[in-house]
Design brief:
4 copies of one chain form a homotetramer.
Chain A lengths: L1 E5 L5 H13 L3 E6 L4 E6 L7 H6 L6 E6 L18 E3 L2 E3 L5 E5 L6 H14 L3 E3 L17 H14 L3 E4 L6 H7 L2 E4 L7 H8 L5 E4 L6 H13 L5 E5 L17 H8 L4 E3 L1 H5 L2 H14 L3 E5 L17 H17 L5
Parallel strand pairs in A: 7-8, 7-14, 8-9, 9-10, 10-11, 11-12, 12-13, 13-14
Antiparallel strand pairs in A: 1-3, 1-4, 2-3, 5-6
Helix pairs in contact in A: 3-4, 3-11, 6-7, 10-11
């Protein structure tokens, strides 16, 4: 269902042209003449009209505006699948009653440090270990990650600790390596609309964490998920990680209302990354608690044993001791809302 | 302490002029010559330099940028007063261990309805009753509030239920009436930088809830509080109520990270208004829980017995039954973080 | 005309309730049942429905969304008045073929300086002189303006140079003084939604420059203008002066597309303030040219003889010599688009 | 040069640790003790410190904030190369006195239509033809472009009309094909921080148009350019195409102040895409004129013979007749500012 609003004083022939065009495409036009505007309701399965076809009506003479009534995403929508999607990874289920904590360093730096961090976060109650091997850095002069070597280290640490692993994929040419060494593929915020990369991960049966882009609306995020789902991969986990606003006190503005909004619109699990969302370690704890209280299915938290020597994002990483304290607090909050960690 | 960065290749006479100007104002210049830039550190009590004086250095020849090191607010700062401010209103204390819930309709509509809502929210555990008598509406054709008559109704309902009252002041000319009939004065988001209004409420010994403007940074909010504090009124309660971003799925983007950020920068109590923050009643519950988990000292929630007939903001008001359920959940969360409601 | 979209699976009784409610208010419901959604078109003069009444339908059970088709502003709309509004002030007409340049210091500082600046800008071709007597400063410790004394100086300089004057009104209690000493009242960005102030200036027959708020949409700006128009004052000049975005390289982001958008939606004159829009004097010239090219009816430019000593906004003020050069360039651009300065 | 600001009351050992750490890295610490804060100036070639190393100081105990004084980009900076970069493509030079107009359809649809459009825009004065073969669409169900077949058509039309061609590259795996059939590679807004793609195009000697991301600051854009420059490709053309803000009246907010800001910071040519910037064909003309007046080195304009049938972005495409009229107007504006088209 689309709604086409005509300009005041639109010519009769403009109206006739639009009606003919709609009928030609197999739709019925329901014309309502108000006192100020004439409005055309498009009857029929308008989900078959692409966004662009719909918009192109806006270029027709006499048209003031086109309102889209149906959602442009289908597979991601709760209309399509009302019950929650749960994703099994090893012995864990994401999207169920249990809230999962994914923890680890921003970048994989060396074997020893990664293993140490993984052991610490596991002890504290984290169920997945994260670490970047390919790092999207705003500066070409920054550390870009250990690449394939980093992937191998992550896989090894995953085996050694028994924790499934999460790492970011930036380039379709690296997919084979990432598929082999990681249990979940992460698509970073800056690649949320790298549509070719989305199609690529959509063609494998591998869980994907899709991070919301810095300027992506919730609809944009769901459309990006739709790209993956449309290729056949239904294991998509959405991740709120902060949007870009005018506020400079925090690195980004963590939009926690996205959690209940997404939970209403889609059946997919929703997690939150407070570390990138706020960008300062001392804000990670309160925002982690708030994310759980808002209904998140999981958290992704950066932990580092020596944040001041970290090759990436040290200022937003928790030390293991702080992480341990936080995990205890999160368990209490989870229980308070009828879930568990 | 201010830092003045010179352009590469700034003339020596430009440097000399700046140094002389600083010395004339009673400061010492600490010059550091780096390989790429020369930087002048301004030594002395630069808190006496106004923002504008500081900026005006940016207009001098040879200057690339001025970095302000000290915070432009003083009385609002934790540097000035490290311990939390608590505000006593009747038998209640805001800013202490107990979290306070302020509830009521957006606008005061009539005696009976206001009383009914106040009784319901009190029963559920709210400690303050709110209601607008002067309403800032985006349209001149919308209901503008019952004005003085509304104030009288609010005061009567406050007395009848034993709850202290909160109402908005929009115009300095109404202050006497509002002072008389309300226990807390609310300054709305659209008036956060109505500096004359801030000065006005600053000159009375009356608690003020200061709502963050739609495009106000956290620093702007603290500067607005400073206006009130500088007049002698130290009873300021800050209120996060959503900022304007590109996201259209919610009315505003509720910036919950503002809570811990403010708690770090200032000693003033911080509350959250989830109703305006998200603008849809079904998101109020999760965001209320998240606000408590993030560390808010209170919440301001719109409740209405007949939201669909409300003269203002019906779509974001909770019905009393939903509010009751929410209050029960909030108590559990509060306990989980070591506080109480 | 409003469009009410029902949720998939909305109950029949919800639909019946809405239809009855609409009929009760004197409207006809046009129901379209699509394959995915049922949509109700509201037939009748929906301009009589306030925004809030319209929104309150969103609180009804079964309703997913309400689309407003008609514009919430009427008197400001080109639908209401298709031809351009022109405003005569002294011998000048704003909104006609001639583009007017309003120039002067941010704040009035003293008699001699204001006179000197006014004489300089007049010589260069400016037709109005501006200067702030009441200054909205983010810091309570900044210079707040010379107040009544500043108004007297401005009036005197206006008489002496033969230029009509522009100054800002911040508080309804100062209106008599401002009406007496200024030819145009400016409502600043921070007061754009100070609705009581808008109503106040709306009740006099005095031209008003209404500046767009930092987070005001174009619709918000037009609604603010509607407040003035609805009181009977039709002499409103809209002013784009930059909006708040994530970009920090400029003080604000000057939204020049607002000029042609406003010209399409409203009959009111539109001017641009590039000085506040960008906040750096070296960007004022290119953005002034761009504003003229985009179709602005005038510009408001800050000029100061000693920017580095200015008590306000020195970093964005042009010196008279630069202003003179700019005026020559602007005249060429104006001619290129078939207008004149 | 970096500036490290300590918290009030930072411990002496924290200061000593930082100084030691700086000296260990080969820098000198210049300590200024103000009345409120102690500040450390880092003396030495801090351009060798990565952004991340610099930030990591923020994780150290006792540190309140780190101010970066030097720009994080080097090759893109005017400090590095003061004179304008000009890029020769065929017989045309971008970045010189002549302003170039790149025109064509959003997507390549078929041979005949593309040829017709190219011939029309050439006749009107455009010097480059654009057309998308790989299309980044927000919906997976939208037309994704003719891919390799589209590239062939574009190359053929380029040869036939004698116009150099511009097309978008979305995936590093397509680079050979794009290099062969296009004279300029476009990197779209959504891929501005697809760093692997940037490195890929950086390793060829081929002009690149780099579009600003929807939420990219000017600094982010220059850092993205730095990625390309750092690989050895110096032929980068920056393109402002609108940023995402709260305003919904236009598709994006075209930030024309980015043109003079960029011209000050970098030696690279800067062009503007008004079609995507505003998203409505009737706003393209005024914003094109404004962009020229603001100092743009070129424009990228969507032109389509049948916008209402376009497979992409019809609502923002000009018809050839409108484009012809616009070109005449642009020539007059260009002349008015001492340039030519």
């Amino acid at each position: 269902m689309d709604i086409i609003v005509l300009r005041p004083g639109a010519a009769k022939k403009d109206l006739r042209y639009i009606v003919k065009k709609l009928e030609h495409k197999g739709f019925t036009a329901n014309i309502s003449r108000g006192t100020e505007r004439t409005v055309i309701g498009v009857i029929g399965d308008t989900s078959k009209i692409t966004e662009e076809e719909s918009n192109s009506f806006g270029a027709l003479p006499g048209v003031e505006k086109v309102h889209r009534i149906i959602k442009p995403y289908r597979l991601a929508s709760r209309d399509f699948k009302p019950e929650n999607t749960t994703i099994r990874i090893g012995k864990h289920i994401i999207g169920g009653k249990k809230i999962h904590i994914i923890a680890g360093p921003c970048a994989i730096e060396n074997r020893q440090r990664l293993l140490k961090i993984a052991q610490e976060v596991k002890k504290a109650g984290a169920t997945f270990v994260r670490g970047g091997a390919f790092k999207p850095r705003t500066s070409p002069y920054s550390f870009q990650g250990l690449r394939e070597e980093g992937l191998k280290l992550l896989a090894m640490v995953g085996r050694k600790t028994g924790m499934p692993t999460v790492t970011e994929l930036m380039d379709p040419r690296d997919i084979e390596a990432v598929l082999q060494d990681s249990d979940i593929i992460q698509i970073g915020a800056r690649n949320m609309q790298n549509f070719r990369l989305l199609q690529e991960v959509g063609s494998y049966d591998k869980p994907v964490i899709l991070k919301r882009g810095l300027s992506a609306t919730i609809k944009d995020l769901l459309m990006a998920a739709e790209y993956i789902l449309a290729q056949g991969n239904s294991k998509v986990i959405l991740c709120e990680r902060g949007i870009r606003t005018f506020e400079t006190a925090t690195r980004n503005t963590l939009d926690l209302s996205a959690v209940p909004v997404l939970k209403g619109l889609t059946h997919l699990p929703v997690i939150v990354d407070p570390s990138h969302g706020v960008g300062q370690w001392d804000l990670v704890a309160p925002m982690s608690k708030a994310a759980i209280a808002a209904g998140a299915d999981g958290l992704m938290i950066e932990v580092h044993t020596n944040p001041e020597e970290a090759l990436s994002d040290g200022e937003q990483s928790l030390k293991p001791e702080k992480f341990k304290v936080l995990m205890r607090e999160l368990k209490v909050i989870a229980k308070a809302i009828g879930r568990e960690i």
